[in-house]
Amino acid sequence: MDLGLQGKSVLITGxxxxxxxxxxxxxxxxxxxxxxxxxxPQQLEAAQAQIQARHGVRxxxxxxxxxxxxxxxxxxxxxxxADILVNNAxxxxxxxxxxxxxxxxxxxxxxxxxxxxxxxxxxxGI
Length: 126
Hints:
This protein is α/β, with parallel strands linked by helices. Helices cover about 45% and strands about 15% of the residues. It contains 5 helices and 4 strands.
């Protein structure tokens, strides 16, 4: 399928596995330059090798914890030219809402809000 994305650049948070990796693969198949951000450098390297072998496009990895404000701003700055942002980072623990304590909920929520922070950093020129 041609979505008309050839030559575009995309930043995918949580891009080293699962849904994020699948998104990275599809964008690469469309001819996009792909930035994948995640916390685990080994998973990022494996994802990069897999996608590059399959599609031959540029894949840039960013080992970063998006809860770290300085690291998030650095990522936003290094990916300032990205045309597309896919906020897929997540760390929601399993279980029921009743069993999830406040600190675990806040920890997970902060990561989920990373796209807003990346967009804010880009808009403010940081």
